[in-house]
Amino acid sequence: MEVEKVQNIALKFNNNNSNSSRIIEESSIPKEFIRSENEQPAITTVHGTELEVPTIDLSEANEDELVDLISKASEEWGLFQVVNHGIPTQVIQDLQKAGRDFFELPQEEKEVYSKPPPGYKGSEGYSNKLGKNIDTVRPWVDHLFHNIWPPSAINFHFWPKNPPSYRKANEEYAKYLIGVTEKLMKCWSKGLGLEEHKIREGGGGDEMVYLAKINYYPPCPRPELALGVPAHTDLSLLTILVPNDVAGLQVCRDGLWYNVRYIPNALIIHIGDQLEVLSNGKYKAVLHRTTVNKEKTRMSWPVFIEPPPHHEVGPVPELITENNPAKYKTKKFADYKYCKLNKLPQ
Which of 156, 194, 252, 282 would bridge 198 by S-S if both were Cys, CB 3.0 to 4.6 A apart? Predict the structure, then answer.
């Protein structure tokens, strides 16, 4: 059964649907959004400190230096930001505007994209849930999922026709994103002492799927009690995320939760589970979550770069030795994804 979208619930507390600084009505939120005390951000966040995760200049001419910086950040943090990445600012702004315009459409128009075509079994579409409804506490977020690459994985049924700029903005962003992804994968391979194509090959090569998502976190009357997305690691190989300027991304560091500093025009790179598996644990998937804001809408545009469903992922064979045995099973990505989304053992 489809549950009410969070955007509609938020509007009940803010009738003028404004992102201004007007204080939202002091009311509690429905109990299904209230986190336990060990998750509530007011209690569990280190306040007054922004985490300055590594920021890496992707235009660095010294390739060995770039490999070293990316490898070190991936081992020690599992997350870093990249600047001078080659994606024009206008391309990112167009992507963001198209996403904002979609979520400002009338609800009935957005709901068209929540209905999959007959026989469809994937995770694309407009929704506010992932996998089975196992969690008793709901996240304060609505989202839109759809594949943007390769062409064989794209189903335009899930691409909004409005705003009219939506398709062009996403196709243009995908074109540039592929180059960033290829560069990162070469660096990860070299950082492991492998030939530069090994991580890309281990992740599915030309069949890797770029799954785009728009997260929409409307203003929340009690942000100290709720989370946009609870603590998790991404099941992808890597995730490349564009945020808006409203803070919300938090990373767990030494058991404590910190806000991540916003850098305009930077891309945030998350190490995902599949890269941790391929590297046999050298690169670490980052544990992160998202908080929400009382007065402003937060949005983000992650793209999850994933192996194709049938592709088997395991530690790269060249990394396995008697002194460094395999720490992870080799299994089809579809099986891994099913277990993770439904909270089953791997």
Answer: 194
What pLDDT, on a 0 to 100 scale, did the predictor assign at position 341? 87
Domains in the chain, please, with CATH? 6-306 (2.60.120.330)
pTM higher than the cut 0.85:
yes
Task: Give the pLDDT score at 84.
Answer: 98
Question: For position 21, what pLDDT does the model report?
Answer: 40
Residues 331, 332, 334, 336: what is their CA dihedral angle, to the nearest 10 degrees? 10
Q: Which residues are catalytic?
A: 213, 232, 234, 288
Residues of the chain with pLDDT under 50: 1, 16-26
Question: What's the rounded Cα separation, in Å, for the pair 235 and 237?
Answer: 7
